[in-house]
Amino acid sequence: MQQSEVKSRLAPPGLPTEKLIAKRVASVLNTLRMSLVTTSQDEFKLAWLDLLWIVFLGALAVLPPFYEPHKELALLGIGTFQIFERRLLRSIPPRRAGAYSVLIKILLATVLVGHTGEVPINSSYYLIYYLPVVSAAMTFGPWGTLLWTALASLAYCSYLIDALENYELTASGAAELAIRNLFFFLAALVVNRVVTEHRRQVSRYQSLAETLAETNRRLEQAQAEARRSERLAALGQLSAGLAHEIRNPLGVIKGSAEMLVKKLKADDPLVSELTGYISSEVTRLNTLVSRFLNFARPLQLQPRPQDIRPILDQALKAAHDRWPDVQVEVQKEYATNLPKAVVDEELCEQVFINLVLNAYEAMPEGGKLRVIASAANSNGRKGIEVQIQDSGPGVPSELREQIFNPFFTTKKDGVGLGLSLVSKIVDDHQGWLRVEDGVDGGACFTTFLPAED
């Protein structure tokens, strides 16, 4: 008789308990499945962990207390929010989103506890408060974790106010309540410590990966500079040999042209015109050969500690005098604590004149030129880093290594020795020269020169 009364409380008349449980499980699973509607254009796919959430919350839905729609709605809300949490809060800044997430979970847990027991403070579902506690431990630092855990504990203990109106809090009850709340804090601290250590390890590995990437980048640059130096040395020797072999015939040709002028009639305009062509072209070739020799000849450096700023100003003035009609906005950004660079003033000025002239030529219609000088360190050496940035078309990545090779040029009337000679001068100063993308979309030539000890 007693069994039939208990059974009648579990199920409506005429419906077996097993069928009721199966129906409840199917209903909850179907409701959760129908709630999984994507909020974006991408198709939403459930992960295996989300399916476990559905299974576990569905199991809680068919356990006592029965016929409690508020409990089922609270479980549905918890499951839905847990699965769609990132999508629902993705438009909120991460820090605030974490706070909103924990707060919503505390509210849902409080609603569930309030509808799962005659006296909510004695509800077996109080363990649901571990959900916001663990979430806070995974999102915030130690103090934030303690704060949110205290808020979850207060939300749970708030049901004690109503309970004390009808019941008396015994010593054993108070001890049990204290144990439950202390375990909230214990679990929060354990999880937070694990998460904090995990974050520290992730940060360490990220820092190590960035260091390795930077080391690899520097190694690639060093290899590129070594290859460039080898090519420069080989081409320099070749240029010196060719220049000497070409200069001798040029002298013979020019001398022969001058003798023809003397032997033939001087008043013949055709003779004068042709011999003038020969002489002028020989002079031009001789000038070109001299540039080859200057490139191949070892530089006789006379390094002294120099203030780099006047050298840069002189280079800017020389470029402006060369291109007076080009409307270029020059921005000079010189650091106040610049050390003195140990350089040959004349050769260093030649370096920056070439680089600034290239920037002007890249902006024939005008543009912006930034010259930045700052103290820097390279491979443990103190020095000065000078950046010359233009707003021109820039240098394609596939040409950045070739532009420093002798005889390589993209100009119609260029020889291809300007940047080669610049690179050679910088290398002889124990510095380096690189080209990268500029801030304004053009090219940025960065030069490092060692400073005075």
How widely separated are the two ends? 102 Å
Number of helices: 13
Q: What structural class results from the helix and strand content?
A: alpha+beta
Order of helices and strands: HHHHHHHHHHEHEEHEEHEE
Characterization of the model:
- It contains 13 helices and 7 strands.
- A hairpin with a 5-residue loop joins strand 6 (432-437) and strand 7 (443-450).
- It is rod-shaped and about 135 Å long.
- The protein folds into 3 domains: 2-209, no CATH class; 226-296, Helix Hairpins; 305-450, Heat Shock Protein 90, CATH 3.30.565.10.
- The strands form 2 sheets. Strands 2-4-5-7-6 form a 5-stranded mixed sheet, covered by helices on one side. A two-stranded antiparallel sheet has the order 1-3.
- Helix 7 (142-157) runs antiparallel to helix 9.
- The model is unreliable at 1-22 and 35-44 (pLDDT under 50).
- It is 62% helix and 11% strand.
- The chain is α+β, with helices and mostly antiparallel strands and 453 residues long.
- The chain has helices at residues 2-10, 17-35, 48-61, 69-89, 94-114, 130-139, 142-157, 159-166, 171-263, 269-296, 308-322, 345-362, 418-428, and strands at residues 304-306, 328-334, 341-343, 367-378, 381-390, 432-437, 443-450.
